[in-house]
Design goal:
By secondary structure, the protein is mostly helical. It contains 10 helices and 3 strands, in the order E-E-E-H-H-H-H-H-H-H-H-H-H.
Amino acid sequence: MVYIRFSYFGYGFGFYVEGVAIINLNIIWRLFLLQNLRNERLSDGLGFFFVLLPVFKKLSRGNDRMKDYIRRHLNYYNSNPIFSSCIIGAVQNMEERKEDVKDIDVEYIRSIKDTLSSVMAARGDYFFEVILLPLTLTIACIFTIYGLYFGPIIFLIFYNYYHFKFRVGGYYKGLNLGENVVNLILGQYLRIGRFMTAAVAFVAGVFTSIVFIRGYVFGGFRVVGWGFLLVAGVIWLRRKYSVRLSVILGFFATVLLIVIRQMR
């Protein structure tokens, strides 16, 4: 029989399974407040220190070693807030190993933290802001266009599945694997990212087709023509052409459409 109990274990309340702490509530809720203390000098450094503060209090055991943790971790930190949970778990793993078995030094912890923050910043921002968020929002919009208002619910479920997977699950992966967590997380990221990149392209194509078809039904050629011009204008501006030239071309395109309409 497996015994589960709720108890206090050193640096916060949580759940025990067979005497092993599996959920530390005092760390989990802090993971969601990482960016609440953002400032220009340290970026998310103060939030990073706040999340791990219960661990540092436990490891310092009330002596002056808290100053060492302050010097080591109360500094500039900037990474993706969701993927940061992996780094927080890895840093906790290394700090506890340093106190228990003395097989790791301070400079190694600092270098691993800096390296992981750079890697996770690029990968995390791209995954959540360029792939996952547009994909889930587009799916929700497709359902909403046809009057199926559970589209936003699908968006919340789909997006937050990966949010909690990496925010909470990533913390425990980092806590168990330490500095080796990057191999697991990036492996998952590459597998999921390849599939979702293709899914974004497919869903965007479906959404564009639906919008143009509905536009033609609603307003005929005029609406579709303006839609094509809008898409062409966005592509034109993304290629960093002159804004002044873009305005001039837009003016001539408007005049052309008016002339065509008058001729009909």
